[in-house]
Specification:
Layout: E1 46-50, H1 59-67, E2 74-77, E3 81-85, H2 95-109, E4 115-119, H3 122-129, E5 135-136, H4 143-147, H5 159-167, H6 173-177, H7 181-188, H8 190-200, E6 217-226, H9 229-235, H10 237-250, E7 252-262, E8 269-279, H11 282-294, E9 302-309, E10 313-314, H12 335-347, E11 354-357, E12 367-370, H13 376-388, E13 399-410, E14 413-415, E15 421-431, E16 439-447, E17 453-459, E18 466-471
Parallel strand pairs: 4-5
Antiparallel strand pairs: 1-3, 1-4, 2-3, 6-9, 7-8, 7-9, 7-10, 11-12, 13-14, 13-18, 15-16, 16-17, 17-18
Length: 473
């Protein structure tokens, strides 16, 4: 395979430093820009942390959470790497040297051995860090010269690709960069060519930003053991104040709150409060938890309490509307979710359920119970999906009998407190042959002698009986 010289745009300027040099000269950076996401790799500086011999799977997550104090752009490179975009943070930590000391101290506190390298591209910083020696390449013009002597193993390409390149005498990054692009892509695939472009800054290397899951967790040891629910609630009231401030600062709410009550000998008592809509009001949360605590049967006095939240959800407080709910398109009242939460706190989760619509034509099988009502955002999605469904072919009564009620007939006319007057044309429902519950019915709107509107049907099979199935409001 023919070799070509390094492209002019990637050739380092001036004299090349020795490949054996451990640390490249640190050049002062210009003032950080105000741009949130730099448009060019030349405006970025990445710090790569290589953690050799990392054994714990969650250690990388813990280190990523700690690294968020240095920059908001933290990316995971499993199983043993971490990337930080630090161009805008250098002046806050005393430049590269100061940031290196701070990150090294963070790793020592977590009991991790680390190697830190700086480069204008993420993949280049990782390759430099994997050599096991600290590097700091701050200029794009010097990047290729520093990468040229590195072995291909630092890129972690597939073993088969590296073996084929080694048989051709290509064992370093500099050697592979001198290969013709077209021939390299045909023989080794476009994935490796794209990696080389990202390595040298020829193309953008977009990384997924790590975001730690934020949750609230506070514990309070009681001065004395308590048995009364009111005294327990008053004792943990400061925890609710902290929770309210925690949620307001993040403009978030919660849909689930867990309270753990510790005892001296018995296992902890777990009290879970599930909400119908995102909530951030500490006072209301205290009231709802108080309702639950009153119904708890404690095996022993309580000696410690702990509050935990599930994942936070965005929360926008309801604003007052000009129209009443349902009037001229007015939205649902916020009292609805409050009523649901209070009923569940007093009666239990199993006593309150939601309703859902099933696909099908048999009226008795067109609806069903669901889990306790979901959050308002999920209900909005359900309403949108319901609105997308086609409207029913005919009116349906709000009150559907649990089972059709047989009606007497005289002269072929159904009777209920006298003869019924059939209104309009019948609606035929004939379905269910595939599951053994086949129905064949002709439904009618009917009015009795008192003006009550009923939903009745006549069976199409003998003996052609009449049945009442629903009542309109």
């Amino acid at each position: 395979m023919a070799l070509s010289p390094i492209p002019a745009g990637m050739r380092p300027e001036g004299a090349q430093p020795s490949p054996a040099a451990a640390v490249t000269r640190v050049v002062p950076l210009a003032a950080p820009t105000r741009e949130a996401a730099p448009a060019s790799p030349a405006l970025e500086l990445w710090a790569a942390l290589h953690l050799p011999g990392l054994a714990q799977a969650d250690a990388l997550q813990r280190l990523a959470r700690s690294a968020e104090r240095y920059t908001p752009r933290v990316s995971l490179e499993p199983p043993d790497g971490l990337l930080l975009e630090v161009r805008g943070s250098l002046h806050l930590f005393g430049g590269v040297a100061g940031l290196r000391r701070a990150v090294a101290q963070e790793c020592r506190c977590l009991g991790l051995r680390s190697v830190l390298a700086f480069a204008p591209t993420p993949l280049a910083a990782l390759a430099l860090a994997r050599t096991g020696r600290p590097h700091a390449v701050l200029e794009m013009s010097a990047l290729v010269g520093q990468l040229a002597a590195l072995p291909l193993a630092t890129l972690r390409w597939p073993e088969e690709v590296r073996a084929r390149l080694a048989r051709s005498g290509v064992r370093t990054i500099g050697a592979v960069l001198r290969l013709p692009r077209g021939g390299f892509a045909r023989r080794f695939g476009v994935a490796q060519l794209a990696a080389l472009d990202a390595l040298t800054g020829r193309s953008r290397d977009l990384r997924t930003v790590f975001r730690a899951r934020v949750r609230f967790r506070r514990r309070r040891e009681l001065v004395c053991e308590l048995e009364n629910s009111g005294a327990i609630l008053a004792t943990i009231a400061p925890l609710f104040d902290e929770l309210g401030a925690f949620l307001r600062e993040r403009q978030c709410g919660i849909v689930e709150l867990e309270c753990l009550l510790d005892h001296r000998h018995a296992p902890p008592t777990r009290c879970v409060l599930r909400l119908a809509a995102p909530l951030a009001d500490a006072r209301r949360l205290t009231e709802l938890l108080g309702e639950r605590l009153e119904k708890l049967s404690l095996p022993e006095p309580v000696r410690a309490c702990e509050l935990r939240t599930a994942a936070l959800v965005p929360h926008r407080p309801d604003c007052l509307q000009l129209w009443r709910p349902g009037e001229h398109g007015g939205g649902l009242s916020s009292e609805a979710s409050g009523l649901i939460e209070r009923l569940r706190a007093r009666l239990g989760d199993e006593a309150v359920h939601g309703l859902t619509v099933h696909e099908g034509h048999r009226p008795e099988k067109a609806w069903g119970r669901t889990a306790p009502p979901a959050a308002s955002a999920q209900r909005a999605v359900s309403r949108r999906r319901a609105a997308q469904r086609s409207a029913p072919a005919a009116r349906r009564p709000l009150w559907l009998l649990p089972a059709p009620q047989a009606l007497r007939a005289r002269g072929g006319v159904p009777r209920r407190r006298g003869p019924l007057r059939l209104i309009g044309e019948p609606e035929r429902i004939e379905t269910g042959w595939w599951d053994g519950e086949e129905v064949a019915r002709d439904y009618y709107l009917a009015a009795d002698g008192h003006g009550v509107l009923l939903w009745v049907f006549r069976e199409r099979q003998a003996p052609h009986g009449w049945f009442l199935h629903g009542v309109f409001g």
